[in-house]
Amino acid sequence: MPLREEFEISGNWLFRRRGWLPMLLFPFAIALLYFYRDFTYACVTSTFWSTVCLLVSLLGLLVRALTVGHTPKGTSGRNTEKQVADCLNHTGVYSVVRHPLYLGNFLMWLGLFLFIGIWWFVIICVLVFWLYYERIMFAEEEFLRRSYSQAYETWASQTPAFLPRLSGWQASTLPFSLRNVLKREYNGLLALVVSFTLLNAMSHLFMHQQLQVDVFWQIVFGLGVVIFIILKSLKKYTHVLEIAGR
To answer: Where would you find the membrane-spanning parts of this chain (predicted)?
Structure first.
């Protein structure tokens, strides 16, 4: 089988499982908290370092929000069954980077990797994520190439795949929709705060054989859960977050 086809097949396989595959790195992070507990405990329980890492992850969530807020229905979704692109997004965030959602995902996970405080683990995770996302991006771009031909070629030749080039910015053709962001991104926020809080709790458990959570993460976790419950309820029981075409 030609490499191009093999890459696309493996990329589509990873695409369908992209919602949970990165979580396979989480047990390794917990293992590091145990085996390097004298060092990692100082990082995971530092309010300053916690704030820095949380901000890195929230930056990723912000990138996702800016992307989702300007995109129409049928694009930039969380679909896992097959590739879907009812139109080719090429303005807004997509005018400076071709895969802004994956850039956002990477930053969200990077904050968690940094939180552990072991730099060789961060480097390994970055390399794993690059190989992982490279295949998915390849499969997505093959789909877009077949679907949009010359329009895709023109956009791809002018826009970097993963590292943004701000000089290429073009205003989005759609106005920003906060409701669209709130409707689609609350799960990611909850997963983020739960992950950070769990790592903090496990670090305390391994160090002192006592399950506890620092006040900083208690507050973050509480806010995250409240926001999640409110937004999930609004989405399930009302039409407040619905907007035509988004």
So the answer is: 20-36, 48-67, 106-133, 186-203, 215-231
Q: pLDDT by residue (tens digit) across 134-187?
A: 999 999 999 899 889 899 999 999 999 999 999 989 999 889 999 999 999 999
User: What is the spatial distance between Cα 230 and Cα 182, in angstroms, rounded to a whole number?
Assistant: 10
Q: Summarize pLDDT for 201-234 with one digit per residue, the tens.
A: 999 999 999 999 999 999 999 999 999 999 999 9
**Separation of CA 21 from chain center:** 12
For the question of whether the overall pTM of this predicted structure is more than 0.85, the answer is yes
Smallest CA-to-CA distance from 171 within 94, 57, 61 is with: 94
Task: Tell me the residue length of the chain.
Answer: 246
- Domain ranges for the chain, please list them: 3-175
Third-level CATH fold of 3-175:
Four Helix Bundle (Hemerythrin (Met), subunit A) (1.20.120)
- Give mean pLDDT, residues 76-94: 75
Contact 194, 228 (CB under 8 A): no
How far apart CA 196 and CA 217 sit, in angstroms, is 8
What's the distance, CA 67 to chain centroid? 12
Number of C-beta neighbours around residue 75 at 10 A = 16
Query: Of all helices (H) and strands (E), which one includes residue 227?
Result: helix 215-237
